[in-house]
Amino acid sequence: MKLLFTAAAAALISAGLGTASLASEPRELGWDDLVGPTTPIKNPFETLTNEQMENLARVLRLDTIAEEDNDKDAAADAKALRGVLYDQGVKVDFLLSERLRIMAQLEAEASAPNDAVVGQSIRLPGYLLPLEMNGDKATEFLLVPTVGACIHVPPPPANQIVHVSYPEGFEPEGLYTPVWITGELRNDPTISSLFLVDGDSDVSATYKLRATSVEFYE
């Protein structure tokens, strides 16, 4: 009986180790897999005419000038234009508050992680944007989905950027070297300072990863 128990236990342990080995294989992801949950937004401006949209934008500009510069003329013009829009059935203040709500929702969703991939060992392709160098090797870098992101065009949403640390270092061929990274993906928001020709720029990343390997993309 003892021999049978030992053999059975060994079989279970062996099976368990096999499962663990399979589980350790990195999951290959695409950038869409990093997007967090989103909620559909109903457009509150869809019934407005082009003229009404332009007047609504003008009210917003006049309100801003009146508040920032204590400009009484701008405040009076905004009040008059509000009256015109309200007479047309346009709920100006409601729409302006909806604008702020939608902007806040979009900003939150742009940085929300996908919990289904957080904590997993993953393999992800992208373009390397160096942050810290040790000689010719990048030991800290951002991985971004497109060439030009963060420098030549505005940064992608924060959940479309991965802050990668790789103490071993990887020698890039230049800005935006295409690579594969492998490691455990974490929800660990960071803000990195990039030096640009016209000054520094702060770039937010939702994810962080300590790479176990960095390879040229082929």
Task: Please describe what this structure looks like.
By secondary structure, this protein is an alpha/beta fold. The protein folds into two domains: 50-111, no CATH class; 113-216, Beta Barrel (OB fold (Dihydrolipoamide Acetyltransferase, E2P)), CATH 2.40.50. 36% of the residues lie in helices and 33% in strands. The chain contains four helices and six strands; from the N terminus they run H-E-H-H-H-E-E-E-E-E. The chain has helices at 2-23, 50-69, 72-87, 92-111, and strands at 27-28, 121-134, 137-144, 162-170, 177-196, 199-216. The protein has a five-stranded mixed barrel. Helix 2 (50-69) packs antiparallel against helix 3 (72-87). The longest helix has 22 residues, at 2-23. It is elongated and about 65 Å long.
